[in-house]
Amino acid sequence: MWYLCVFYHRLLEYRRPEVESLAGLFDASIDSTATLQWSLPVDYHSDSPFHLVNLPSEELAQSIASRSILVKGIYEIWGEGRNFEELEEAIKSYPDDRKLPYLTPGSTFKINVDSFGKALSSHEQKDRLQKLSFIPFEGRVNLRNPEHKFCLMDNDVCGSNNGLAPIVQSRIFFGREVAVSDRKLLQTYQLKSRKYLGPTAMDAEMAFLMANLAQVKPGKLVYDPFVGTGSILVAAAHFGAMTMGADIDIRVVRDGRGPDCNVWSNFKQYGLPMPISLLRADNNLPPWRSGLKEVFDAIICDPPYGVRAGGRKSGGRKLLKGIIDPYTVPDDKRTGHIPSTAPYSLVECVHDLLDRAAKMLVIGGRLVYFYPILRDDNSIDTTFPEHPCFKLVAVCEQILSFRYSRVLLTMVKVAPYTEDIELAAKMKHLEFRENHVKWLEEGNLHSAVFSPLETQVNGVSEKSSSKPKYRGKYV
Amino acid sequence: MTDWRSASRAQIQLDSPEPDHRADHSKNKVQFEWLKLKYEDKLRRMRLLTHNMLSSNIKGVTNGFPLLIEVEKVVEKAVDFNADFLRNMFAMIEWNALVEASRTVGYSELPENAESSMLDSDEFLQKFHHALLELHLEEGALVCPETGRKFTVNKGIPNMLLHEDEV
User: Fold this and answer.
1) CA A403 – CA A472 distance, rounded (Å)
2) Is the peptide bond before A452 cis (omega within 30 degrees of 0)?
3) What is the mean pLDDT of each run of 10 residues along chain B (167 residues)?
4) pTM recorded for the entire structure
5) Distance (Å, whole) CA A30 – CA A24
6) How many whole angstroms separate alpha carbon A158 and alpha carbon B162?
7) What residues in B contact A274, CB-CB < 8 Å?
8) For residue B37, with 0-12 CB atoms within 10 Å meaning exposed, 13-18 middle and 19 or more buried, which class applies?
9) DSSP labels for A376-429?
10) B20-50 pLDDT, tens per residue?
11) Where is the Ribosomal RNA large subunit methyltransferase K/L-like methyltransferase domain (chain A) (predicted)?
């Protein structure tokens, strides 16, 4: 059945993939790589918060809304139209057997009046409500605890550029509320009240979205190879998963900022079960035993892109200076030796991540990670990393600055990790090792993001003044 | 009206029985240290599940699994029981390594051999759960069986990073 899915006007590209992922999570019969059927109300832009979605059952709609971060509510539409006359006609022609059970004499009800992009005064609300008097409500009004809730919604058109999606013509919707979401958990988990934070701690809303896209649920094992302060695992643990994390920086995973301010304390703060393990390990040379595979149900991470924080890998000095001579640690200095690390280019980091995930994820397991892209006009059709074991199911962009944005990629493991793939990955690993310096130069996002603007050719100045007015992805 | 500062001072005096007794100060401090230790015990953990997944990845080492355990301090801590998780994990566990590791840290209840049919027994699951998740190596080391290289475990975090010449 088709439902009206109303979203929060945020993170626009993340909204449909989140619902699809949750549909797959709650209904095992939905193929996890398939997409749901979507459509838009007549005249509407896909950036508008009103979307129509075909879901197999009302229970599924309720489950999705209860878990979703970006869904505001899901409604069964009784009627819609460009104006109240059309709305009335539509509601009257909606089948009675769908309406009457909710209008019975003994029941209680409430109608919410809402307009997207505009605050309605109580007077305006009352005006609009009175136009619904043709609906034969027989129950009593109860604003506190009604049995049935209805909603009258429209999209304000004020013509001017108010940052909202351009729509040709507004529509009015009237429907029965099937489920509404609860974003209270974002307040509980907001970063400003978290004890231990790092410079790239993942925002709570995004961390929960990542957990939803990774289909995290109780009893699943979730791994973050760049765990840092644990902000992504906190979200996964909230949804009941067992968590594991690794980081190359031992000060972050082991010490934090003292006994009551570290990764463990972040879990304790919310009463969540502790991670199963935290370890100091290198994503380039992970310490997993060779026979270990298909262990994790999801790998969720935010790799270091080299803009705010750069990646490091083991095997320092000799690579840094380009010296081929073997570097040796004297025997008497082995205990307590602090190994140096080398910079880790994004290309190599993502290669390692995909290869490792292909091996360590169960079939049907999900890899959810951020990938940075430069926002030149030339690179509109960016190609994303690929792997024979994975199918890319969602690409969601979040614009970070004028120069670059990051894209959340959701991949599902669809094929087993074979020996051929392992061999190819090993060859690539050696190639990276040999041409370390070259890759560092090529994958240097930092200079592209922070270099002065003049370097971009002179003609650009005129372009930047005629920036498109509507930039929906910014929200 | 009472100033808030004096109000809170009065509150403190109510809470502590002998507020002016300086001699008790050191005792309080000791207790505080002890509490802190106890608190840390609760948090820091390297479990045998982790041990079962790790190996020595030093260049040239062909059989770096299982790592030997050098125990300095082991802590036991109850963890919520989840049978489904255990059943999922069973398939990937190297049983002999788990038995050996649990003996090293002082738990010898696990049977020598295990097969998936045993997962129906609640008694077995409880033992498996205890060995896998409730025994924590807090201080010690994991030792490479081939080279003897020690990977230290400090505050429950195994340090698996290789030296420059081991990469």
Assistant:
1) 16
2) no
3) 42 40 47 46 72 92 91 87 89 92 91 89 92 91 92 91 84
4) 0.86
5) 5
6) 62
7) 43, 45
8) exposed
9) -STTSSPPPP--TTEEEEEEEEEE-SSSEEEEEEEEEE-S---HHHHHHHHHHH
10) 444 444 445 444 444 444 444 445 578 999 9
11) 193-317
**A118 to chain B nearest CA, in Å?**
44
Looking at residue A104, what is its pLDDT? 93
CATH topology of domain B46-166: N-terminal domain of TfIIb (2.20.25)
- The DSSP secondary structure of A197-253, one letter per residue, reads --TTPPPHHHHHHHHHHTT--TT-EEEETT-TT-HHHHHHHHTT-EEEEEES-HIII
What is d(CA A67, CA A52) in angstroms, rounded to the nearest whole number?
19
Quote the mean pLDDT of chain A: 86
Instruction: Name the residue with tokens 């009046």.
Output: A113
Q: What is the ipTM of this complex?
A: 0.80
Residue count of chain B, please give it.
167
Q: Name the residue among B49, B155, B159 with its Cβ closest to that of A276.
A: B49
Q: Between 3.30.450.20, 3.90.950.10, 3.40.50.300, 3.30.2130.30, what CATH number should domain A2-182 receive?
A: 3.30.2130.30
